[in-house]
Amino acid sequence: MTKTKKDKAIRTDVAQPRRHEDDAAAAQALGRDEYEAQLRLLQIELVKLQRHFIECHDRILILLEGRDAAGKDGSIKRIVENLSPRETRVVALGKPSDRERSAWYFQRYVPHLPVAEELVLFNRSWYNRAGVEHVMGFCTPDEHEEFMQSVPSFEAMLVGSGIKLLKYYLDIGKDEQIKRLRDRRRDPLKQWKSSPIDAVAVKHWRAYSQARDEMLMRTHNAVAPWHVVRADDKRLARLNLMRDILSRLHYAGKKNKLVRPDPDIVFEFSPDRLKAGRLAP
């Protein structure tokens, strides 16, 4: 199959967010039945997308970042639920070994990059160095600075090689994080998610905010832009994340109206949005 430029391109044009006096009031919570109905339709679109990129031998890489309990696990679960496991991989790396710590920082991530016909989702990625490692002192200031300077070039190489790269930051408010972390500790089915890092996440709230802001400001660019998902409402966040992914990748039979995301929930990062308070302080 011959690809056109349209097949290869990722859309970067997005509608400007509507202005509201109270953005929270604009996002009405969905009932379960409506949520499940919309989710099914979007999962059908994801299957259509997968059939297309398999036929075209595309490589798709999606990075999901965000604070602890921002909803990365739940979002990924819904995205991959009905996709072919042969061509879909979720990467969630643990603590690096001593050998990995002595290697080039990006080296442990490279083996997990997608090959032809694959969709790979990173549940946290190399941006750990800009967030958790930086805030918790797991890397030195020099290592952090070297990362911030080199990551745009690394991602430019990935995109230049033909990988379609999408980067998302799931943003939640402090009160919502406190609630979710408390619920996580109480739920016996979710206690595997708890970690020592969770225990101090709220304590270091401001430091994480500063690290997030610096990361977005220094690593957002035209080649590999960041998109922010306002994730206080899990259902709306999941649906609109899926819509945004689908809207940015070309595939046959796309239902354009169905995959149009709400710009109050998903938007491309810019310094103006940061100054306007569009991200949690």
In total, the number of strands is 6
Strand order of the largest sheet: 2-3-1-4-5-6
How much strand content do the residues show?
5-15%
The N- to C-terminal Cα distance equals 48 Å
Mean pLDDT: 91
Sum up the overall morphology in one term. Answer: globular
Order of helices and strands: HHHEHEHEHHEHHHEHEH
**Main sheet?**
6 strands, mixed
* Radius of gyration, in angstroms, nearest whole number: 18 Å
What is the SS-derived class?
Answer: alpha/beta
Helix content percent band: 40-55%
Q: SSE layout and pairings?
A:
Blueprint: H1 5-8, H2 23-26, H3 32-55, E1 59-66, H4 72-80, E2 88-91, H5 98-101, E3 118-123, H6 132-136, H7 141-160, E4 163-171, H8 174-186, H9 196-199, H10 205-219, E5 226-230, H11 234-248, E6 266-268, H12 271-275
Parallel strand pairs: 1-3, 1-4, 2-3, 4-5
Antiparallel strand pairs: 5-6
Helix pairs in contact: 3-11, 4-11
Task: Briefly characterize the structure.
The protein is 43% helix and 12% strand.
Notes on the structure:
There is one protein chain. The protein has 12 helices and 6 strands. The chain is an alpha/beta fold and 281 residues long. The chain starts with a helix and ends in a 6-residue tail after the last helix.
Key descriptive features of the protein:
281 residues, alpha/beta, six-stranded mixed β-sheet, 12 helices, 6 strands, 12% strand, globular, disordered N terminus
